Amino acid sequence: MSAPLIAFLDCEYTDPVDIDLISIALVTENGAEFYAERSDYRKEACSEFVHVAVLPLLDAPASRVLTREQLAVDLRAWLTALPGEVAICADDRTDYELLDDAVGGDLPANVTALDQTWDLALTVTFGEAVARYHAEPGHPWHHALHDARALLAGWKAMQAEAEQQSMIKTPRK
Question: Are strands 86-90 and 5-13 parallel, antiparallel or unpaired?
Fold first, then answer.
């Protein structure tokens, strides 16, 4: 049995207390991407931080600005179309809750795991790779798609480091 496909998840939302999804992104280890913004999030629930740091970054084409209902349909279809089993990784439990809500509380059967990346996020390699990604022009923090891509960059850096370390530890013949 092969390992599940990993999809990195990030969400932007109105406020931690009065929470409503604004945007959602998933980026898989093989390069597939899903990004959408909600057209019907509660603007009045947005914190000052969200007004300053998140809303100005919203940039989805009109075809990817969706109602809650259309987002659920599109997101479920995208997840279902992914090959094999899928493990979702995020750096915040809130993202999983927002994903679950976005699909109407019923994740597709091929989504078999929800794994937080807290352990990875605490490593220097992961954090440096995420910071390098965001340091590039056009890769802002607090944009769901860029934050998900940054998680993927961090994971790839960890994979490369692990591979390099295994090559160092393996005696050559």
Answer: parallel
Give me the phi and psi of 136, to 5 degrees please. -70, 140
Record: fold of 5-169: Nucleotidyltransferase; domain 5 (3.30.420)
Residue whose tokens read 């009109």: 62
pTM recorded for the entire structure: 0.92
Residues 6 or more apart in contact with residue 114 via CB below 8 angstroms:
87, 88, 90, 96
- Pair 58, 86: CB distance under 8 Å: no
- Which tokens is 1 given? 């049995």
pLDDT per position as a tens digit, 29-43: 999 999 999 999 999
Specify the pLDDT at position 164. 83
d(C-alpha 51, C-alpha 39), whole Å: 16
Query: What mean pLDDT do residues 90-103 have?
Result: 94
Cα dihedral 5, 16, 54, 154 sign: negative
Sign of torsion, CA 94 99 100 102? positive
Rg of the Cα atoms in the chain: 17
